[in-house]
Amino acid sequence: MATILNSRLAKLRALVVDDMPAMRQNIRSQLGQLGIEQVDQAGTPNDAIKYIRSTSYDVIICDYNLNKETNGQQMLEFLRSQKLLSPTAMFFMVTAESSYDSVASAAEFQPDAYMVKPLTGGKIADRIERLLDRKQALKPITDRLQKKDLAGAIAECDRVLKIEPKWIVDILKTKAGAALELGQNDEARRSYLQALGLRQDLVWAKLGLARCDQAEGRLEEAKIIVQGVLEKNAQYVDAYDLLAQIAESRGEDQQVLEALNKSYNVIPSARRSRMVGDAAYRVGDLEQARSAYDKALNHTRGSLTAQASDALSLAQVHVDIGQAGNALEILSVAAQDHHEDPGFCSRQAIIAAQAFAALGDMASGKAAFESAKELAADIRADTNTLTLAKAAFCLGMHEEGARIMAKAIKSDHENARLVALARKVLKDTGNETLVEKIVDDAISAGALIVDEATRLMRNGQFDESLAKLEEALDATPDNTGVLLAAAQLHLLWMSQKGLDRSYVRRVNGYLAQLDGLMPNSERVAKMYRFLRETLVKVAKEA
């Protein structure tokens, strides 16, 4: 029977995940003594996922050591990445005291809490009670965040802070993050400084100040802050991530790779292997890319977190280093595990086409290329499209390759990574002389559309300007430059002519699309701010 203190625990539903039946039953009994009677048990990660797919749990208690293929951390990574956990679920990771430090410091996805063995009912109750108190206190804020109402979340932070000062550090962290995402850098900076005034050891607040500098273009100042953090804590992996972002903003690809290598040394996870592999591939270090993708495969072999992209990326590197036979073998093995993945077959055929061409089997190469083109269905602004163009060049189909590449770049001419990869494809296939004709001309074509629409708008030809951009979006729906321009010009039209609800819906649609294409972009945040300012202005005038 639940005590008065823990009476609210009786309403919770729990899942215990442990490969040892005796341990599962022990935790189940302790939960029962706390009043938690609805308890399911899973002995394997797969069983746990089946339960989680069909039932909403309030508490999940998972042992770190589950089996050889998948540990508790990998399972949590899978649940978070697949968005299988309820936003209100509490996930506790159970570890032995001897392994706590290594497990906690190497956590790519943080659980709500770590609990060190041996577990007791008192320990479990204390953790649950504290998290329930925290979730209840911050609920008005999290409700706003779930609705993507960042301005509302900031207002709730100020309100909740007055009545729940106990959670000031959590509230300041949330408020600063929301302000930074909205582009309110001064507000974010004040919150980070306020947090540091309470506790000087808050590393996330120091990195927050660096992010403020980064957003304002003060990249050297941001870099100095991050390096200062790493001098005191070389294990803080988020600092390496931010250092890599700053280096990428400065076009320092080699420094990006160095930062990601250091982060991998701290957390040798599959995700970080992929990041290292991608960065190494961009700078042309194929041997390091091969090693990184190979490690990613080894990290996830037989695990729930295995991804088809690891084998595909590894196969592409083998083609590039002249080991086409190895590439085909990797693709054949991967097909056994990922044949149901909708994106696998298309990219598999693209890489196979290159491999066959390298082996001199042009008939098989062209057959694979045609299959890849059919599976791709449309030419999009992504890396798969550029590898399709690469396959065409490898097969001697230069006009086809040029057409595919030009259309991809026109679809997103402001995507620096895409453009850099296009240049690399041309260089790798011996077509470096075509860079100006294909890449530069395609970039110019995209920029000309935006320039022409802007000119029409400045001349007062609003309808013609918007029609120009709508026409461009019909042809290249994922072009970030055109989407940003379309959002801006629709807002300028309303600031001149008044409210048009259909235009507001369009702008919100453009920005939602940009959120997916350019996550955490300062340019998109500014456009959201412009939208709010325009609506306020129009309302006042009305």
Describe this structure in words.
With 542 residues, this protein is mostly helical. Among the domains are: 7-142, Response regulator (Rossmann fold, 3-Layer(aba) Sandwich), CATH 3.40.50.2300; 455-541, Serine Threonine Protein Phosphatase 5, Tetratricopeptide repeat. The chain is 70% helix and 5% strand. It is built from 26 helices and five strands. The chain has helices at residues 21-33, 45-54, 72-81, 100-105, 121-146, 150-163, 168-182, 185-198, 203-215, 219-232, 237-249, 253-266, 270-283, 286-300, 308-320, 324-338, 344-358, 362-376, 383-394, 398-411, 416-428, 435-458, 462-475, 480-497, 501-517, 522-541; strands at 13-17, 38-42, 59-63, 90-95, 113-116. Strands 2-1-3-4-5 form a five-stranded parallel β-sheet, sandwiched between helices. Helix 9 runs parallel beside helix 11 and helix 19 (383-394) packs parallel to helix 21. The longest helix has 26 residues, at 121-146.
Principal-axis shape equals globular
Main sheet overview: 5 strands, parallel
Q: Which class do the helix and strand fractions yield?
A: mainly alpha
Please name the fourth-level CATH homologous superfamily of one domain: Response regulator
Find the CATH topology of one domain: Rossmann fold
Q: Report the CATH architecture of one domain.
A: 3-Layer(aba) Sandwich
Mean pLDDT: 86
Radius of gyration: 26 Å
Total helical segments: 26
CATH class label of one domain: Alpha Beta
Report the span from N to C terminus.
62 Å
Strand sequence of the main sheet, in spatial order? 2-1-3-4-5
The percentage of residues in β strands lies in under 5%
- Poorly predicted segments: 1-5
- Total count of strands: 5
Roughly what percent helix?
over 70%
